[in-house]
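Tokenised fold entry reproduced for everyone:
>
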Amino acid sequence: MNYKAYTDEALLRLIKEHDDHLAYSMIFERYNALIYSHVYNKLRNEFEAEDTVQEIFSQFWIKRNEIDLTYKFPGFLFLLARNKVIDHVRKKKLSNITEEFYSSNLYTKTYSTDFLIREKQLEALIAHEISLLPPKMRQAFELRYKNYLSIRQISEEMGISEATAATHMKKALKTLRLKLKIAIFIVFLANILGSN
């Protein structure tokens, strides 16, 4: 079956109605560079743009049943891209606020030996939470964030489809974000209370 000869509409129909991974891979091949260029133009950071694009295509697969076949493509992808970029910028602003706190005099004054111990405990907790991920999910996560492999490279390394690799990554990140938000809040709160 020559997917390269298929129109976008035909590929989208296969994705939506038959969960066709090869059709998804063809859409990825056609639009990856275009979406990356669009996202990079907004973020101006190669690593952040690559991560965001992977999230966009992962979201595209997850939302495949919501695709409106009468809607002009790649409008659907650009809509996902717009939302992901906005979400990324919001998270980055929040991260910058956190960094400002940690680099401020207030943080320096309260950066006690006790807090350093808590920080080590937090690092151990992060490693522990990663170890608790299901094996395939953990492997995909470590290949991405320890070996810096792309989704395509991860799929080749693990012998799975790009869609499956992207799904593993999304689930791993969702799980860890929830766990680590709680852990970071506890460490932050303990530091504030310890300084009073």
